[in-house]
Design goal:
Shape: globular
Number of strands: 0
Order of helices and strands: HHHHHHHHHHHHHHHHH
Largest sheet: none
Helix content: over 70%
Radius of gyration: 21 Å
Strand content: under 5%
């Protein structure tokens, strides 16, 4: 890493949080404005499902490569590049009058997030230590997890009273502010080991595999689950995954360094992170259902999740303090349990309007409490157990788990909802979509229980 006496500042933290918000707050706000976009642009629900999941998918595909590039080229440089891409992607969506620019903008936003997420985590580790680093990561988590919660409230209010495209105008403003706030942060990168050749082969195999899997999930119902195209997509996914593991395993410049997974705390944090991010599909199901099935406006549906926002923002610092006192595993477990309960109660669609509204509000609040408790212990466990010269790549894998988890969670939830809605109505569709997310939460809980060591995070407890 470049030699510097620089210590991270609150200005740097604020800039990084603004940068993170350009994805989690604005790009993800689309989950709450589906009906408004569909009416305005005249695109099909299938196209919108693809557009919603594309940002997280492309983020997940490129985030490891971007993290590795950040280690070699400079973490600040890649962060700035990501913020510029965010501005371009948002402009495409603002100017969209159909599916083409909408999809292009979503793809660019995904690549933008791929650059911003791992490089900003790496900057946090480079310029903060110990409790200060945990505090900085808490604010990073506020931008990430808090932004995903705030998107429902903010996105719904903007869509209802200003028009949904204003969401992305604000995104441009935040990206510009982020560029200005981090301009004085020194560059940070790993020492040059002479192994700078980029793993193009691994990236191509990974892209093909992930695209085949995403198309299978999002379009399988429309194409037909027994159609030859769907079967080919499954075969490509399976063969691609096998080839990728064989090609990458043991390579010095591998896109994904499988050696990182020999560290149990890092593995447990990454796997559970993937699964709990898959639960983000709840936001799509719940917001779409209360608008289509209960007659809510975008703003009203956003207000239902205000408890989520308050809880996740409030509990992130609490999770940090618990981490410092008793380690990472218990707050991660408690967070998964609360998330499971919160998501589960939203499936009680047989309740009348008033009762269901109350239940959903409580469910979102518990969802937020759970993710807030989980966020900092999980992120710190992943960061603190990664080697300094690979922190960008390790952060990239950790955030790839977030992005791909969210992409597949949203895609699976939206697909389940759409399939059941066509046959049995929106009430049954919402219940089915929620059950899919409950399953993700149960597996996440089990992954923490069995994969995260009891002493994770305790080495730094003062």
């Amino acid at each position: 890493m470049l030699e510097t006496t620089y210590k991270g500042t609150n200005k740097m933290i604020t800039g990084i949080v603004f940068g993170v918000l350009t994805f989690w707050l604005f790009a993800q706000a689309m989950v709450n404005v589906v009906p408004a976009i569909q009416q305005d642009l005249g695109v099909s629900m299938g196209t919108l499902n693809i557009a919603i999941s594309l940002t997280a998918l492309f983020s997940g595909i490129f985030i490891v490569a971007a993290g590795g590039l950040a280690d070699k080229m400079g973490r600040k440089k890649i962060t700035n590049f990501g913020l510029i891409l965010s501005i371009i992607g948002s402009l495409c969506i603002v100017l969209a009058n159909g599916a083409t620019l909408l999809i292009i903008g979503r793809i660019i936003q995904g690549i933008s997030a791929a650059c911003i997420m791992p490089s900003t985590i790496a900057l946090m580790k480079a310029y903060f230590e110990g409790a200060d680093r945990q505090r900085a990561l808490s604010f990073w988590s506020i931008g990430s997890w808090g932004g995903s919660g705030f998107c429902s409230l903010f996105g719904g209010a903007i869509a209802t009273y200003m028009g949904w495209k204003w969401i992305f105008i604000f995104s441009i403003i935040f990206a510009i502010l982020a560029l200005w706030l981090i301009k004085d942060t020194p560059e940070s990168k790993a020492k040059d080991t002479g192994n700078s050749k980029f793993d193009i082969k691994g990236l191509i195999i990974f892209i093909i595999t992930m695209l085949a899997l995403n198309i299978f999930i999002t379009q399988g119902a429309e194409i037909g689950w027994t159609n030859w195209i769907t079967i080919v997509l499954v075969v490509v996914t399976i063969i691609g995954a096998i080839i990728f593991v064989k090609v990458e395993n043991g390579r010095s410049n591998a896109l994904i360094d499988f050696g990182l997974f020999k560290n149990a705390p890092y593995t447990g944090a990454t796997v559970s992170n993937f699964l709990l991010n898959a639960v983000a599909g709840t936001l799509v199901v719940a917001n779409t259902y209360v608008q289509e099935g209960r007659g809510f406006t975008s703003f009203q549906s956003g207000m239902l999740s205000i408890g989520y926002l308050i809880a996740v923002l409030g509990m992130i610092r609490v999770g940090e303090k618990i981490l410092q006192k008793i380690g990472a595993k218990k707050p991660m477990l408690w967070g998964a349990v609360l998330t499971l309960i919160g998501v589960g109660v939203m499936g009680l669609t047989f309740l009348p309007d008033v009762a269901y509204t109350i239940v959903v509000f409580i469910g979102f609040a518990l969802f937020g409490l759970g993710l807030g408790l989980y966020a900092t212990p999980s992120t710190d466990t992943a960061v603190s157990n990664a080697p300094d010269d690979k922190i960008g790549a390790a952060s990239g894998i950790y955030k790839m788990a977030s992005s791909l988890g969210s992409a597949f969670g949203v895609a699976i939830s939206a697909t389940v909802y759409a399939m059941i809605a066509d046959k049995s109505g929106v009430d049954a569709a919402a219940t089915g979509g929620i059950i899919a997310n409950v399953i993700f939460a149960i597996i996440a809980l089990l992954s923490i229980l069995f994969m995260v060591p009891n002493n994770a995070g305790k080495s730094e407890v003062k």
